[in-house]
Design goal:
The protein has two domains: about 180 residues, Glycogen Phosphorylase B (Rossmann fold), CATH 3.40.50; about 160 residues, Glycogen Phosphorylase B (Rossmann fold, 3-Layer(aba) Sandwich), CATH 3.40.50.2000. It contains 14 helices and 13 strands. Strand 2, helix 2 and strand 3 form a beta-alpha-beta unit. Helix 1 packs across helix 14 and helix 10 packs across helix 13. InterPro entries: Glyco_trans_1 (IPR001296), Glyco_trans_4-like_N (IPR028098). It comes from Clostridium hominis. It holds the Pfam family Glycos_transf_1.
């Protein structure tokens, strides 16, 4: 089965990491990837080492990009063209009109986006989404939010995300807590985490934040203003997430909203206790006081109290981490995701 994945770039992000994990696990040279801008991330470098075929559509002219995409789809005769993110979905939807021999699929990765602020996009996206032979949502909440937005009765299939297991667990815990978040906006709630940590300065030694984005400078200013400059380190983008997770006592996710967060699943696979905000689909993954702790980030002090409690209670932390791992292993490992995607491709091809 020949598959072309279309994605904006291979910079670091949830959709990119999911596709990266899938390509490595599927271990098939029949997967190609079309990108709209060059990348130098470790994800991209690793895939090029594995001789995964990339199609570079980096022209500034969108018409040139589109023509190149259509030519490649026709020449390579892909069974499936699978788009991820915006504007990749727009290019793929229009290309489907000129490439009738391939099946077109789109994965919705997020519960919201900026386009949903403008009514004109509702009309445009109704047309765009109709062009796909299959639409995947990475969670039930993502599916529900998409259907509410489009206000149309279209078929959307839920396939939950999956991640590779972090198998090397370090017993030497260097960091009290870790968070992994894109800093492109304030959606991930890192500002909330910093404020909560300022309430318990004397109760933790260090915290690390993995990720980068335009909000980083503002967050650094906030960190310093809260007197946390000697306790909280921003480490940028890392290619050793597994190692950093295994060296941490607690994983914290203080997001304002989420799709189906890969970082949360990675933490579960690393067997570390999790504290997460009670939003979107997180409560469907984490059962409070069973395989993690859920908090209301809008209630001042709730997150900081949970952090303080877990740092003091080693037995509880171990129990939560073990149950989190079992949840991951039975539901969210990359093998399950790959099997479900393969079944979906086969189903769409036969339709």
């Amino acid at each position: 089965m020949k598959v072309l994945h279309i994605i904006n770039s291979f910079d670091i992000g949830g959709a990119e990491k999911l596709l990266y994990n899938y390509i490595l696990e599927a271990n098939s040279k029949c997967n190609s990837i079309a990108i709209f801008k060059s990348s130098n991330s470790f994800l991209y470098k690793e895939l090029t080492k594995r001789e995964i075929r990339f199609i570079y559509m980096c022209d500034k002219n969108p018409i040139s990009k589109f023509i190149r995409l259509v030519k490649d789809i026709r020449n390579e005769k892909y069974d499936v063209v699978h788009a991820h993110l915006f504007p990749s979905n727009y290019y793929a939807a229009i290309a489907s009109l000129f490439c009738k021999k391939s099946k077109f699929i789109f994965t919705e990765h997020s519960v919201t986006n900026r386009r949903r602020k403008y009514k004109i996009f509702k009309f445009i996206e109704r047309i765009i989404y109709r062009q796909f032979d299959g639409i995947i949502a990475c969670s039930e909440e993502v599916k529900s939010s998409l259907l509410r937005w489009l206000e149309e009765n279209i078929n959307v299939y839920t396939i939950n995300n999956g991640v590779k297991e972090i198998k090397k667990i370090d017993t030497n815990k260097e960091y009290d807590l870790i968070t992994i978040a894109s800093l492109r906006s304030n959606v991930k709630g890192v500002d909330i985490l910093l404020k909560e940590l300022s309430y318990i300065k004397d109760d933790f030694n260090n915290a690390i934040i993995i990720g980068d984005g335009v909000e980083k400078d503002n967050l650094l200013i906030l960190r310093d203003a809260l007197g946390l400059d000697n306790k909280v380190s921003f480490l940028g983008i890392r290619d050793d997430i597994g190692s950093m997770l295994s060296k941490s006592k607690i994983f914290v996710m203080s997001s304002r909203n989420e799709g189906f967060p890969l970082a949360l699943l990675e933490a579960m696979s690393a067997k570390i206790p999790i504290i997460a905000s009670n939003v979107s689909d997180i409560p469907k993954i984490i059962r409070s006081n069973k395989n993690g702790v859920l908090v209301d980030i809008n209630k001042k002090g709730e997150l900081s109290r949970a952090i303080k409690c877990l740092l003091k209670n080693g037995d509880m932390s171990i129990r939560l981490g073990e149950y989190a791992y079992k949840t991951y292993k039975n539901n969210y490992n990359i093998e399950i995701y790959c099997k479900n995607i393969k079944k979906f491709y086969e189903y769409i091809i036969k339709k």
